[in-house]
Specification:
Belongs to the class I-like SAM-binding methyltransferase superfamily. RsmB/NOP family. Keywords: Methyltransferase, RNA-binding, S-adenosyl-L-methionine, Transferase. It comes from Bifidobacterium tissieri. This is 16S rRNA methyltransferase. This protein is an alpha/beta fold and about 500 residues long. Strand 2 and strand 3 form a beta hairpin. The protein contains 22 helices and twelve strands.
Amino acid sequence: MPEYVSRSGKRDSRRPGRPTNGSGRRRPANKPPADPRTVAYDVTSRVSASDSFVNLLLPRALAASGMDARGRAFATELVYGTQRWRGMIDAVIASAAKRRTDDIDAAVLDVLRIGAFQALFMNVPDHAAVSKSVDLARSKTGARSAGFVNAVMHKIVARNRQEWESIAVSRIDKNRPEERLAVRYSHPAWIVKELTNAWNASGYEPQHDETDPIAAMLAADNAAPDVTLVARPGLVSRDELIAQLPENAEHEPGRWSPYALRVHGVNPERLAYVRAGLAGVEDEGSQLAALALAYAPLEGGEDSTARTDRDHTWLDMCAGPGGKTALLGALAAQRHAVLNANEPSAHRAKLVRDNVRALPDGTIGEVWERDGREIGADHPGVFDRVLVDAPCSGLGSLRRRPEARWRKKPEDIVELAPIQRALLNSALDATRSGGVVAYVTCSPALDETRRIVDAVLAERKDAERLDAVAVLRAVNPALPLPAVPGDVQLFEHLHGTDQMFISLIRRR
């Protein structure tokens, strides 16, 4: 979650004297701070050229820049805003340049994107947006490109954002509403279609304010998300976490999870409770997914000690990087249950172990590095509760990784479906009779949510869908939920969370 960098507004006071570079390390005494636009360009060009992720590149660039809080915030807004609004910006550039963006040199195009975002979305004066873009072009792409950038930028600043939006949308047939929304809210049209289908199938009643739910969803996707912390129960309370926040830090309790805390202007990595693993950074949608599994009712079950209503062996089948695992483990510890975790990637398995390090001894059984599709055959009927946070397209977290919307393709969803079905089948095989599986994805796309569950249940006679609506209503009665029983799809514009899908299935 990189957005906290732009909101911190605080200097590093740990080392007096020579200015720091934002990471706490001293920078050379005579080295001037970097220009925010240059930093934004360097990150943007690397994202464009190498499919790198902003949330990995930007913090490093900011730490090395020597900029103050204002400069870091400016660069952060430039980078994330350019990625979020790239679709609209490219339409504007193509119109102003009178050529397709594919025909513009990639480096020059990145300069123009950064300049157009300043002119249309930030309070940067027109003359500054033009002149700074020309300077950036001259330093990064050569003097010959500066004249072209100058001409295009002058055309762009001649109209405001609303005028350009009207021009771009008016060129699309009114009978193609998804494409018009795609341009207006800067999303690929196929993603708009997926979100529309998900909403229509979700079971939510129409909103009283008559706002177009798809437009509201897309608008929410373009807003920077809050930083949300989780106070892991039994390890630290939410009040104790609040008491450790920096003075004057903005915060509010989570809207839905009893363990959530939303913060602004806070670097979570500097909080002692987070560093110690007693708390973590976790979106409320993810917290609700873990809570749904923990709250789901079990049936019967006997073991060798003749205990009934067994609830002491849990599994997180796709655990990396471990945020949900740690919350599940904290809940398991309160019930004297043991949680096993599985993560096939060695690197992510290491992150899981680090995330659960503060849990009471004996809470975590093992952390496996195995193919989850084999666990059901190797451990049949063992577990009382199993979480399957299946690998997916990630369409539910585009507000956090805006660059991903331009990389994803419809075929990505199709390719993952066999893996998702196999993982769910394996989880059901590993669950005892009367036990519960939570199938979860960070995506609203029907082909990796309810259709996966439908397909698996159609093939099995030993499993049944539970009412996740009723379970989550027990977690928080105020949570907006579908009007019909069954699965729950969370939406950004309703819940302010990532767009998590939650289905609960009982093994019969």
